[in-house]
Design brief:
The structure is a homodimer of 363-residue chains.
Chain A lengths: L4 H9 L3 H6 L4 H12 L4 H21 L3 H19 L6 H18 L9 E7 L2 E8 L9 E7 L10 H9 L3 E5 L17 H12 L5 E11 L1 H11 L4 E7 L14 H10 L5 H11 L13 E6 L7 H11 L4 E6 L10 H15 L5
Helix pairs in contact in A: 3-4, 4-5, 4-6, 5-6, 8-9
Chain lengths: 363, 363
Amino acid sequence: MSVTPETADKVKAILNPGRMTADGIPYPDYAAAVSALDQGADWFDFWTELGDEYAGLGEEAAAAGNDVSAGGWLWQASLSWHYAQFMWFHDAERREAGQRRKVELYKQAAPYFQPGGAERIEVPIDDTVIPGYLRLPANAGDGPVPCALLIGGLESTKEESYLFENLCLARGLATFAFDGPGQGEMFFDVGLVGDFERYSSAVVDALVERPEVDSGRIGVLGRSLGAYYAVRAAALDDRLKACVAWGACFEIASELDTMPPHTRAGFEYVTRIADSGEARAHLESALDLSDVASQLKCPVYVEHGAHDRIFSMRQVELVREHLGGGDLELVIEEDGDHCCHNMGAIVRPRMADWIANKLGATP
Amino acid sequence: MSVTPETADKVKAILNPGRMTADGIPYPDYAAAVSALDQGADWFDFWTELGDEYAGLGEEAAAAGNDVSAGGWLWQASLSWHYAQFMWFHDAERREAGQRRKVELYKQAAPYFQPGGAERIEVPIDDTVIPGYLRLPANAGDGPVPCALLIGGLESTKEESYLFENLCLARGLATFAFDGPGQGEMFFDVGLVGDFERYSSAVVDALVERPEVDSGRIGVLGRSLGAYYAVRAAALDDRLKACVAWGACFEIASELDTMPPHTRAGFEYVTRIADSGEARAHLESALDLSDVASQLKCPVYVEHGAHDRIFSMRQVELVREHLGGGDLELVIEEDGDHCCHNMGAIVRPRMADWIANKLGATP
């Protein structure tokens, strides 16, 4: 399925350059992609070709013993493949091809990450696994360190959080980024579920067994739809001692009609339910914190942009109403877009500071 | 002096977003600045106000003990002030105010940089000093490490090389970025000179005394006009064992008529000679490698973009002709602009690898 200039406008409408560049896409790559779109090029092809160029550089660097560059370019390759497919809900075949290649490239990159590489861990659950990466800060050798679970959103995955992980590591905080049901590579086994907490708690089960991780200082941070999952996970597992909701999302029912159509299609897609009406009914019942909000005991930090076009300010009101009983810090950025991606240089270090401090991390 | 929308076009014409973002300006800040310009805002005011916002965040973070964010935001503040003034050759008062504030903010940021902070060193020469920052890699405690001198260009300064320094540090290579004559804060004491090597050798004199630095493994990398200085420095000081020219610049005489007028004005400005004809005569005699090229003995890596609008491909021919006798690696990027800033994600790690390998750095 090729993208014609007519649909190029649709592609451009769903792009968020603040997000893409803050997650690691070099601005010239973004600009070249948009320019190529304007000239009739195919978005998916553009990024997969660019990704393969970076992959070639990364493999050459690895062969030459230039490990730092190997990790950097293979990660850049993975990220290019990620953005090739990230909103490609209309073309399941290409989306899967993009996801699979992204995952493989990140696997190749992970051993080269500093400090000490990223360790892929597959946490068993039911008849499948939860795939994730554990990264440890430079001072992990001095004794157990606190750790943050990092949860992606509708189409952001564990491979996209590399730069945010670096912010955590610099503050002495380990990270475990993983794909849950409906996300990244796990989507192919399990679609979006109502009991995400069963998966996040399985991850905690695995982490508390790790000698490098201080089992009493584990927290969780989720982004976009992941913000919903993070609160749910923390409410239902008291081993999670701090929670960051990167975007306010309390329930989805009141947002589905007003969010951009492409995003709505994405929500339906990740359910793996073919019928649109059924998918929507599943989303509405699966994504609602009403039943668990009162169980949340740990401190929560919520960051929300007033110009978010996906999660409206109604979500902020729900958060204030239902999560406001405990230790809630709610930051509304008047100029912020979805997840405040247009002010990542401010909100990202701030969230990293908050969770690192709550978990007693030291650089 | 305010920038009207009419002159906004002139400002936009001299911007290189690839450079700005690769040096650390968040893309949303760049986009907001250009959008503000289009609405009649003043470029200098935009960036200085934004810089002060970052400075406020940095100072708050420092007070709260969030050192990593303190360093990050104060650096971001410094960088915002840098780009407020970087090509402001038409307004000496604002340019100086911008330079001074940039320098102060970077001084504030430096102790917080990881790992171990950046140490400001003022190397005495004549009746002034050469200001620079020494940064050491994480493994510096294991014994003396190799070190790269980093030299800026016409209006790029030591404060702008922070992210490139990080690439070096990750590879086990220390860095010493400094302002020479005509550059950054040194401009106010000494304008552009013909014997830059006297200054770079004074820096080497200081570095060989440092126990953290392996005096037998010092190299030099210069960017844009700094590429000229780097070759000159290496040709005339055999303590420099490897040289990277980030952009080919062998002489300036044949480029002055064809470069963008604003850049030419900048070259004249940094001479501190008021008369345009005299300034130009000084530039032509001061900036020419003909007399020293044959003395260059160390390996040289030259990176050049075929679409460079400041240094033409004639410079590449001169490099090939006069520096080709020794160990020369000349990389021409057919799609590259000035200093290949539009492909920083490729050329920057590559240059860092080259010099780290030549100097035997290990991560």
